[in-house]
Amino acid sequence: MRTWTVLLSGSLCIASLSTAQTGVRHHAALRHEKPAARTTAPEMVFFNAVIYTGNGLAEGKPETVQAMAVGGGKVLATGTNDEVTRLAGPKTRLFDVDSANTGSAIFPGFNDAHTHLGPAGRMKLSLDLTGVKSLAAMLAQTQAYAGKTPAGHWITGGNWDQTLWAAKALPTRQDLDRVTAGHPAFLERIDGHIAVANSAALAAAHITAQTRAPQGGAIDRDAAGEPTGILRESAKALVTKLIPPPSPEERRKADELAIADALAHGVTSVQDFSDWQDFLVFEQMEKEGKLDLRITEWLPFKAPLARLKAMRAHHDARDPMLHTGMLKGFLDGSLGSRTAALKAPYADDPGNTGLPQYTQAQLNRMALERARAGFQMGFHAIGDKAAAMALDAYAHLPGVKKARDRIEHAQVVDPADIRRFAQLGVIASMQPNHLLTDMNWAEARLGPKRAAYSYAWKKFLDAGVPLAFGTDYPVEPISPFRGLYAAVTRMNVAGTKSYFPENRLTQDQALYAYTQGPAYAEFAEKRKGKLEPGYDADFVLLDMDIAKVAAPAILYCNVLGTYVGGREVFIGHAKY
Q1: Mind listing the domains of the chain with CATH numbers?
Q2: 158: Cβ–Cβ under 8 A, 6 or more apart, which residues?
Q3: How far is residue 385's CA from residue 475's CA, in Å, rounded to a whole number?
Q4: Rounded to an integer, what distance in angstroms lies between the CA atom of residue 300 and that of residue 377?
């Protein structure tokens, strides 16, 4: 027999545990100590399971244990069945995992490093055009929606994607006019960087042939100089400022739907950029004991500094369920909309290099001001020019390596700038699932030379750049399994098309980037992302071992249970 220390209810206690390993290593956090009395039994024990603690993932040697004890919202102990089950008391709930859920495995909960919960939920309550295969289908759905819309109300929503259509032409105001029955309509593309407005919406915003676009925006025009209805980047605000906000009841319902969607897909934490009003809804849910998802809410980089300080001070920064985090700034747009800022013109649109949202001088000045106020920053930068601008701004900041500043998306980055990420300590916050969509047209946008260093997850990792993976929900579904599949295969869902496979990751590397990588990116690596004593008991029970199955199977993984702080927040078809 050997005596090991385990953490129980925030204090150390000792249990005499068998050294029989049955092929499973003792957890590194269990250490030899002098005996002490154990006063509190765990609330739950999961045993007869395959449990990934998170240790060894970065080295390609993932540690697994058979059993885990949970209590007080924390992991209390891990080890063999015999070691952990003997800690149970009369009130401990025992879960025999594998006997009822053959082939299942437990993993640390997924931490999505980039979401938009508020817009995702509101999309579920508006006109959702996700996946429509033609302009005709888009218009048919819009017409049906208009028929149910009360007189005078706006038609909003979107998620259309013209790259899925045979003609690939953007919709126009005249297209919408035919089916919107006089309602003002504003429908955003799936990436949120351009939108189509109908004539009623343009008239309400006084957008005419004479209207000049704001900095960082564009108003598409036809041969006669008249607006086509397509508004790009900052030009969208000319219309969106007129759209009535959702009612408090609608906002609450939308936020609840988005949170439920995340939990059902095994996501236990998100780093989110929604409206401040959504944060207030999350805060109210927490007060009511109804917030089941950990949320780190980003603040808008462009907001006045005094406002940012007030928002930061509004809520306890130490709250493990809800708090504010980094400042999110937009430096460019998207490849799909051809608004991402590139160093050289688009291969399929000569003369167009995208739409930067700041000059370098503006960006440097604002970044320095906010860094001095103690804010972490994350810049949306999809094109290589935008990424270089972000790095230039970070290079002028004091104490960059301690700030864990980030670049969001980093889809196209000059190889020389990848090295600058590492030199400056900048995190690459990336969304592998974007490739499942973008690989159909990205090479045409970029040309083969630039495409070879796009979505370059392995190049970043090899250069020593920390990766934090997410989904960009609702631009892509919240499911982490699509991202894991994309990261390890770089193939489309059908498995028939590959995109520069030399940038594939291993399953261990991808899992690390979806769990511990995001925790590091939000300064939480000492309390979440792993399942070891003292860490938050955030974990998922899956119907397959996604660290070992053939990569195509990952797409079809089902969540049997999601636990946040040891609480059951989603139960699928798990049996105990």
Answers
A1: 1-109+529-576 (2.30.40.10), 126-240 (3.10.310.70), 248-528 (3.20.20.140)
A2: 123, 127, 129, 187, 188, 189, 190, 195
A3: 22
A4: 10
Helix (H) and strand (E) counts in the chain: 21, 26
For 186, the enclosing helix (H) or strand (E) is strand 185-189
State pTM to two decimals.
0.90
Coil/strand/helix, residue 95: strand
Instruction: Specify which residues 299 forms β-bridges with.
Output: 327
CB 242 within 8 A of CB 204: yes
* β 44-47/67-71 pair status: antiparallel
Residue 192 carries which side chain, given as an amino acid letter?
G
CA proximity to 473, closest of 295, 241, 337, 284? 295
Q: Would strands 93-96 and 44-47 be described as parallel, antiparallel, or unpaired? A: parallel
pLDDT digits 0-9 by tens, 49-80? 999 999 999 999 999 999 999 999 999 999 99
Tokens 């592998």 locate to 432
Number of neighbouring beta carbons within 10 Å of residue 443: 18
pLDDT digits (tens, 9 = 90+) for 95-110: 999 877 889 999 999 9
Q: State the Cα angle at 35 between 29 and 37, rounded to 5°.
A: 100
The residue behind tokens 């603040």 is 299
Closest CA to 95 of 56, 48, 135: 48
Please name which of 19, 33, 15, 55 lies closest in space to residue 515, comparing C-alpha atoms. Answer: 55
Sheet with strand 64-65: strands edge to edge: 64-65, 51-52, 105-108, 539-542, 559-564, 567-571
- The H or E element containing residue 384 is helix 384-395
Query: Alpha carbon 440 to chain centroid distance?
Result: 22
Q: What is the CA radius of gyration of the chain?
A: 25
Instruction: Work out the burial of residue 188: count CB atoms within 10 Å of its CB; fewer than 13 is exposed, 13-18 middle, 19 or more buried.
Output: buried
Structure tokens at 369: 């001001």
Is pLDDT of 574 > 90? no
3-class DSSP assignment, residue 260: helix
Write the CB contacts of 362 (distance below 8 Å, at least 6 apart in sequence). Answer: none
Q: How many CB atoms lie within 10 A of CB 306?
A: 9
- CB-based contacts of 301: which residues, under 8 Å, 6+ apart? 327, 328, 329, 330, 366, 370, 377, 379
